[in-house]
Automatic annotation (TrEMBL):
Listed SUPFAM superfamilies: Isocitrate/Isopropylmalate dehydrogenase-like (SSF53659)
Source taxon at top rank: Bacteria
Keywords associated with the record: Manganese, Metal-binding, NAD, Oxidoreductase
Cofactor(s) for this UniProt protein: Mn(2+); Mg(2+)
Ranges where the Isopropylmalate dehydrogenase-like domain occurs: 1-337
Region described as Disordered: spans on this chain: 321-341
Keyword Metal-binding: yes
Protein known as: 3-isopropylmalate dehydrogenase
InterPro entries according to UniProt: ICDH/IPMDH, IsoCit/isopropylmalate_DH_CS, IsoPropMal-DH-like_dom
């Protein structure tokens, strides 16, 4: 978080077109261990009233609720603020190392949108467990699905307008097996009829996992249920080279959270060696979202500059952190991005 805030302040100061006021709020497993509360009401209200929420990596496996589940304020925030659209970009810059065998200077740029408030996460912490069986409930509602698809079609149009995508949206489901997903797909098709300027497609989730590895360049925007999106977004991070390069946003009608996809990595906490790039890229997503919301072209421009700066550092490879094969620490990696800017 520290280098990311410094970069945002620097960009704002240089622009003269916007400024930031940062309010820091407590939440998480360490706070729960001290107080018995994982997301204090004051922190929730601070988040609710903010223009945007930049969230630190969360999670500490050694601290859990009494039922054995992990402390996860990020999921609580999604539900409390109805952040139904989880946006997970998958980007591989030309020349960037990847587990994929890409042609020279070939780029990958698509976005996975996972519904973030219901689906198989609906009964989180409330599943039924007996001696002989356990069950969780998947919930898909019409209202949330309509909101999700409206957002997804809008994003596909936005990406096309910014020359980031081709104006295509694929609904990823398992409608051939589950009635809930047939319901999900039917709502998608009805929404698609209102957006004839976007090409609407369908794909089953198992086939999508295959195609993300064999032909990810074919995708533009994908939209799916919560658990499917949770799994596919980590596959997307793997294509990029790891979670250290995976940003995310959870967006609702009134609030938005921006945070790296990775957890808190407690085994290296406090050593100043964690990769800051996913957090910095999440901040770039925040800049673009705020810029579009406020019609501030400088913020939109700075978001792209920030993405380009991270891409340049990663492709160069000389000042990356050890998870990417480099030897820079967190501070040095952040400074490398600042130098590129």
């Amino acid at each position: 978080m520290e280098p990311t805030v410094a970069i945002l302040k620097s960009l704002a100061d240089a622009s003269g077109a916007y400024s930031f006021k940062f309010d820091f709020a407590d939440a998480g497993a360490s706070h729960y261990a001290k107080t018995g509360v994982s997301l204090p009401e004051a922190s929730l209200e601070s988040a609710r009233n903010a223009d945007a929420i930049l969230l630190s990596a969360m999670g500490l496996p050694s601290v859990r609720y009494e039922d054995g589940t992990e402390i996860s304020p990020q999921i609580d925030l999604r539900k409390e603020l109805n952040l139904f659209a989880g946006v997970r970009p998958v980007r591989i810059a030309p020349g960037q190392k990847s587990p994929l065998k890409l042609e020279e200077n070939q780029a990958i740029d698509f976005v996975l949108i996972r519904e973030s408030t219901e689906g198989l996460f609906y009964s989180q912490g409330k599943g039924e467990v007996t001696k002989d069986s356990a069950s969780e409930t998947m919930m898909i509602t019409r209202q949330t699905s309509e909101d999700l698809f409206q957002f997804a079609f809008s994003l596909a149009k936005q990406r096309k307008a910014l020359n980031q995508g081709k104006g295509e949206l694929t609904c990823v489901d398992k409608a051939n097996v589950f009635r809930a997903f047939a319901f999900f797909r039917d709502i998608f098709d009805k929404e698609a009829a209102k957006h004839t300027d976007v090409t609407a497609k369908h794909a089953y989730v198992d086939a999508t996992a295959l195609w993300m590895v064999t032909k990810p360049w074919d995708f533009d925007v994908l939209v799916t249920e919560n658990m499917f999106g949770d799994i596919l977004s980590d596959l997307g991070a793997g294509l990029m080279g790891g979670l250290g390069l995976a940003p995310s946003a959870d967006i609702g009608k009134h609030n938005a959270v921006f945070q790296p996809c990775h957890g808190s990595a407690p085994d290296i906490a406090g050593q100043n060696i964690a990769n800051p790039f996913a957090m910095i890229l999440s901040a770039a997503m925040m800049l673009e979202w705020l810029g579009l919301k406020a019609d501030n072209q400088q913020m939109i421009k700075d978001a792209q500059l920030l993405r380009d700066a991270v891409d340049a550092v990663v492709v160069d490879g000389k000042k990356t952190t050890r998870d990417l094969g480099g030897s820079s620490n967190t501070t040095q990696a952040g400074e490398a991005v600042m130098e590129r800017l």
